[in-house]
Design a protein that fits this description.
Blueprint: H1 10-16, H2 21-26, H3 35-41, H4 47-53, H5 58-74, E1 92-96, H6 98-119, E2 125-129, H7 137-141, E3 153-157, H8 165-170, H9 187-190, E4 201-214, E5 239-244, E6 247-248, H10 250-271, E7 272-276, H11 278-286, E8 295-299, H12 300-303, E9 312-315, E10 321-330, H13 339-346, H14 348-356, E11 375-376, H15 380-384, H16 388-405
Keywords: Signal
Protein name: ABC transporter substrate-binding protein
Pfam family, one: DUF1858
Length: about 400
């Protein structure tokens, strides 16, 4: 990293580090947001002159700029949507469920500071929401062919491209990764054989999908007790699930296909009224309106965001809460160098952070407080012996066609 100093021009600084504009604005130099001003005045104006004009302490401001640049470089200073090929620069890439992102970031920030002080090294990481990359980054993963194109550590959510045939053939079949799970893992997830028998994936936690119903919109005898009940004809257009713009959650679709086949997918499509982000589901439920869906397939995390719990029923269907996996891939070749990082991610402290956010951890020392909640996991044999990528496309085509026919709202 080239250190910013007082002799550099404003144009040079902001051209090389556009993210620093917000700091300039906070200190009375917002005029450089105007591109014309930046291009005409910026090359002529040295930083020391600009700071004297606004009476800002020169030393403190330059220190602030350099710290911001250092922090941005540690976090990647790019987005996967714009530059997926730059993932190889990272030590850690994390694509997380929405509810897990904030507690993860807080824990990682604290760890990163300690890690830098202890080792003198920066933790080059990028943390983004998984939902943002269903149709972007994961499509890119399907085209990656060299292990050198991947970060040392990848945390991802849902049954994504890391389960697809190209990734299995190019990487998983060649034992490039190491499983760092404790054995045995936490009893809640050990009971469903959650550990990868091929020792490639390190399973960190699970995003549990449950069913929420609005009581006053349901007849007492019609409240669902199983996932199969959702498929009944009387529930046509009465259900919301995660989705947007014609894309619906594979974490729901794949398990429903496994349980009930393609006819089950058609029935599910008939039952779905619309696709929403879980936060939008919470707003709908809290609105108290009578023209909203009566039933919601949503992450367990978001159920605690619902303000009036007395008006709803949270159902764990008889088949079990659907387990949408949160998994980690760690390169064998880098395992020793990133051991402190992976020890933190697999450790008790982070496991407790995860469990408190209602994402049960695999760490055996943590109480997930699931109270023997039944869980439904698709299983490794099925996932590793199915062309998951092709199956997703087939399911999506059938689902969207039926969804349109039966009056679903995009």
């Amino acid at each position: 990293m080239k250190t910013i100093d007082e002799t550099m021009s404003i144009y040079q600084i902001l051209s090389e580090h556009p993210s620093l504009l917000k700091i300039f604005k906070q200190h009375g130099m917002g005029k450089f947001e105007n591109r014309e001003v930046l291009e005409k005045l910026g090359p002529l104006l040295k930083l020391k002159t600009a700071l004297s004009m606004v009476s800002v302490n020169r030393e403190s401001f330059i220190e602030l700029l350099n710290q911001a640049v250092e922090d941005n470089e540690a976090k990647g200073d790019f987005t996967l949507a714009d530059s997926p090929e730059r993932q190889k620069e990272l030590s850690l890439l994390a694509l997380l469920p929405c509810g897990m992102k904030m507690p993860f970031n807080r824990a990682l920030d604290a760890f990163s500071t300690e890690y830098r002080e202890k080792t003198g090294n920066m933790l080059h990481s990028l943390v983004e929401g998984n939902v943002n990359h269903e149709l972007s980054y994961y499509a890119y993963v399907d085209s990656v062919t060299s292990i050198d194109e991947l970060p040392d550590i990848i945390i991802s959510s849902d049954i994504n491209s890391f389960y697809h045939k190209p990734f299995r053939e190019n990487f998983l079949s060649k034992d490039y990764f190491v499983n760092l799970n404790s054995s045995p893992m936490n009893r809640d997830l050990k009971s469903i054989d959650y550990a990868d028998p091929r020792d490639q994936f390190t399973m960190l936690s699970a995003n549990l999908l449950v069913l929420v119903t609005i009581d006053e919109l349901m007849e007492d005898d019609s409240k669902p007790k199983s996932w199969e009940d959702v498929l009944k004809e009387e529930n046509r257009n009465r259900v919301a699930m995660r989705g947007m713009n014609g894309f619906f959650c594979n974490g729901v679709l794949l398990p429903f296909y496994q349980m009930y086949g393609m006819e089950g997918i058609k029935k599910l499509a008939s039952s779905i009224y619309t696709g929403l982000h879980p936060s939008e589901m919470v707003k709908m439920i809290d609105s108290k309106k009578d023209d909203v869906p009566a039933m919601y397939i949503m992450p367990y995390f978001f159920t605690r965001k619902i303000k009036d719990k007395s008006s709803i029923t949270i159902t764990i269907p008889s088949e079990g809460a659907i387990v949408s996996p949160v998994q980690m891939l760690v390169k064998k070749s880098a395992a020793e160098n990133v051991k402190e990082i992976t020890d933190f991610l697999c450790g008790k402290e982070f496991g407790e952070v995860s469990a408190r956010a209602l994402f049960p951890t695999t760490n055996p020392e943590v109480d997930n407080d699931l109270k023997d909640m039944p869980l439904y996991w698709m299983g490794w044999e099925y996932l590793m012996n199915t062309d998951v990528g092709s199956l997703k496309k087939e399911i999506a085509e059938v689902f969207n066609k039926q969804f349109t026919i039966t009056g679903g709202v995009f």
